[in-house]
Fold these 3 entries.
Entry 1:
Amino acid sequence: MRARFPAGPLWAGPVLVLLLCARGHAARGEAYALVNARVVPVSGAAIDKGTLVMRDGLIEAVGADVRVPPDARVIDVKGMTVTPGLIDGFGGIGLPAPRGGGSGGAGGRGAASSPAPSGSPLAPQSLALDRIAAADALKARDAGITTALVIPKEGVLPGQSVLINLAGEKVEAMVLKEPAALHLHLATLSRTYPGSLMGTMAYARQSLLDAAHYRDEWKAYEASPRGKRRPRYDSALAAWQDVVAGRELLVVTASRENDVRRALDLADEFKVRLALAGAPQAFRVAELIKSRKLPLLVSVNFDPPRAAPLLGTPDDEKDRHAIEDAERNPAELHKAGVVFALVSGHAADFVAGVRKAIERGLPADVALRAVTLTPAEVLGVADRLGSLEAGKIADVVVWSGEPLTKDAKARMVFVDGQLYEPEDKPEPRRGEGSPSPLPRAASPAPEVQP
């Protein structure tokens, strides 16, 4: 039966619409003020007792003498530290687990073979956005991660990544930049071409040559279409066009020292914008990277799965040295004066990997910048993300202790100005007969004032 509405004057509808609009505007304009905080803007000096005001999804003000707006929801975070949200600038947040075994792609080392993703392993036209599960992606906020660049680790040309902010129920509402970059993994494929690294480089070069020809063919046709046969549309070649034109970043995943040189040679030949991802051996060519000002997304996935050798048994000693080199890679790069971002590289625990880099000699303040402002700079979004500055997106984390330390927990996470409070996870159960851990001092609960 159709619902009946009470009769009323003709102006009731417009007035109701105006009231609802006003109510919606008030909700969107909700303000928060974090007071008595130790604020680490990253772009400037830390403020020991600061205030940060957020409104309508943006940072409105930050500083030691900021006036708290009368309509703001005031949260006293005395004893806590406030930082920008963490950015995972290269990983698989929200993607389904790959089917089958294997490594390579974004995670492996050596001439590893890479299993195909759900589509073709040579599919530059594929969009990572189409594969993200929103509910799975949002789980990363528990670790203080607010922004992520997402790309599958499988394949050689896995497609185009997307940069997302972790707020909202639908993936489309999370998008910050789509596409964010086109990706080339310097890996090989099992039982199909390219089955060697030489073949992978040859395929990449041919793809760029074909993309340039495709561009010229369409340009000539559009300039004078009459009497000419229309060129055939090719989605794979179309995906390369912004890279060829210099408008889109080409991110090359490099697992070996010589991969850095291969990627630079490719960029020089085709005059494309280049960033390097993974790079566990980058410290060995630090001077080259520094002189070329090569944007670097250094993985903290220090011990990724490795493909079994085709002949013989795994070399455990070689693998151990490779892990040790990867762990000290960030600290050595910093000593050499190389600026870089730290990324998960599809590691299960991004923050734990960052802590390991700190344990191996990377200064904590450098590590914090490497997971906030530097990845924003590499990905071309530092004008809106990566530091606590007025006018930037309100991606903010309130930590119970010193950020990136083992005992520090993300107590409050703001993404696009929306408050999310991670639940305390129970400590892992200890084995029978294990000594009980010493009681740990609880962090003071933030005081919220209406």
Entry 2:
Amino acid sequence: MLRFPRCTALLTLLMTLGLTLGAASPLAAKPLRLVTDPETLDLIDEIAQPLVAAAGLPKDSVRYYVVLNPTLNAFALADQRIVFHSGLLAMARNRDELAAVIAHELAHLAAGHHIKLKSDLRRASIQSLITMAAGLAAGLASGNSKAVQAGMVGGQAAARSGLLAAMRQKESQADQLAVNYMGGAHYDPHGVSSFMDLLNREQRMSVKPPAYLVTHPLGQERLSAAEDLVAHAPATTVRPDHQSERLLRARAKLMAGTASDPNAMANHFVELLKQGRYTATDPERFAWRYGHALALLYAGRLLEALEEFNGLLKEAPDDLYILRHRGLTYLEMGDAKRARRDLRRALAQRPDHPDLRLRLAQALKADGEPEEAARMLRRLTLEHPDEADPFYVLGVIEGQQGRLGASHLALARYYALLLQRKNARWHYQQALQKLPEKDPARALIKAELKELKEKE
């Protein structure tokens, strides 16, 4: 049977959702764009691992996601998931400030600051969960009882005032735990007060406070309390900072990825390179060149992007992240063979990464090897059943190869993950019509279709 992603019946308190109060959520209004390449997520995971251990959470139990959104925001979801807006990553000035945000959200998870979701929302793709979280936060903020009751259980939907009143207490608790986790992980605890001070200055300079501050309220009392916590934190030996260069690269990538005008952003990177007095090995110079290449790619200036990626790979020939982007550039240009070459080189360094496997499968399909692509995607969907996109690509390939029953089944699972139940049900029914009577997949389809109907 298809194992829908096991998102428990818990969603974190409103303050860990961190979404703008009193206004429609930007996440609810626009389709979500998740960062799926390994680079930014690997950086977050690497910084987070010592904090997870300090929080007493099981290793590899927390998953991290980045939404391409320029606003400053972060929140935790049930089932040990933390979501960052790209704007927050762009604002963090160093590793320890980013670590402080991660520590704070881990504290909410470890402290169990939760409210319950209705059972029919327990299983969904991460995109659907984030969108639902946005709707819940907006409903709580605006008093829209229909929006709240769509996702929350029973009397908790009416407890808006109680939830909002609990914010300051929960935030203070999370602040204290974050300082403890920072010290236990051998990060500089001053990252907590430093990031709060940055937020406080942003708040003073803006008519409308950052979304993170609305549901992570930051008054002077809380800021002073955090500074006091840091001042009295036990001394710790701070671990060497190996993430500074990678944070610069992640910031450049996010600048390119969130730009409304990629051409203007490409020009911006050129100006940054002209203004700086960089040595040949300066990490900031490399980061701005990387951002320039990505902006060119997003602007559709493929030959120029390819030239920039080639130059970067001369300096870092085995960099899997640049190999991935050059491979995707080749794929956009219709050169599937070169795309396969680069993506295989990248995948050799991270053989279990879902995104790299999906991208290689797409390159294989484009290069006239759909059967190998289908085999790769079948394994991928079995190992990562909560990833929606591989089901869609698999469904397309199966259909093109004439396996219509398998195609409809993959597409049914894709739409089920997106909570588009009408589409999912239609594809399940088509799969039953197309598959032979003795096909063992029919029993799985009937079970999944029954589960789907129970949620309507």
Entry 3:
Amino acid sequence: MQIRARLTLQFLLLGGIIMIAASVAIYLSSAGFHRNDFNDLLRARARTITQIVLDSYEYNVDRALRSGIYHLDRLQDEKIIILDFGSDTLYISDRTWKLPELASLVRRVKQNEEVSSSKDQYEVLGTLYTSGSYRFVVIAAAIDKNGPVRLRQLRILLIIVCLVSLLLFFIAGWFYSGRALKPISDMVRKVEDISITSLNLRVPQGEGMDEIGHLARTFNRMLERLEKSFGMQKSFIANASHELRTPLTSINGQIEVLLMKDRSTEEYKHTLGSVLEDIRSMIDLTNKLLLMARTSAEGPVSFISEIRIDEVLWQVREEMRMQNKGYNINIKLNDKLIDSDQLTVKGDDYLLRMALMNVIDNACKYSSDHSVDLSIDHNGKYLEIAFKDRGIGIPQDEVRKVFEPFYRGTNALSIKGIGIGLSLVKQIIDNHNGSIKFKSKPGEGTAVKIMLPTVK
């Protein structure tokens, strides 16, 4: 069921409940008011007849009833019974009329002073009448001919009003729900026009600050993120394809040249060594791409394993020096670090090792002396690892791009690399709920600071 139809039915149901409740209340109130009015008439007739009867000489009722006062305001099929407090009958207007449970009614009147009830088609009222020191019980009954007719007319009128109101509620609900949902309908039509090739389109968000405007702004921000993500994905695929194609082309060319004629053993060894280097480069690129895909998919993670960063750094230092004999890696720990918890973080040992290796490799590779200075400190709840090299640096207008995949500085294109290291480092550090800062100046070198939350 569409939202508009559901809102209309809810509006109709709510309006119907209100109208039915109001109609029932009006009907019951009118019935109660009419009964009270008829009881007032019975009470007035009871007092009038009782006064006439008691004021007549020695209860000479016949003479009293011949007066015209008795017939004034007489009710339809009126019945009057007057009894003294000893329950002896003093007067009865119609001796053929038998009131069921008369004794019970008289007893209740003596207790409560006034009792009203309905017997068959009669409305009955019992009341006390006091004359001097004497008290009398007066029972008055009559047929309310107009009351049921008026209540029936009121019932019909209320039913008609309810039906008309429900129709009006339906029309109003359908109209106003359509107006309320129109911005959403417009948004849906606009969204249907948006595809993977038109992510630059945006939904109208208007000037309003209501929930629909907030939804439109949120959706547009999501489209902006999608557009940026798709753009980065296209660039990533294009760059990855290029980086993979370059060594493959080199391998293919070298093998074709090698097969053109017989070669000496030294030539074969030299070519195979070059091919092996290209294959290793491809393996390194593939591993980094897989690692980058893994870290970008995971997002921030709550790790369980506790890792001593100083131990990891010493291991990385030895591995880097084994792979590159000319690298000079200097590590310095702050003398104030006396608690092992200040050097311990929760994380993934392999991922942190890869991040540190990439930063160290960049620092040494782009420095003329192939050296980097590392310092470890503790600041609040974070472990700080600072890297400082004396390399070629990066132009200031390019610093903000260093964490983009496959980006390389314009002054570093002559040095071998693929530009994926720092983007991978940032993703790994982000996944460990840490942060990374980067400062660089051409000709003076680069400073990188990694901050990771410690267990203490």
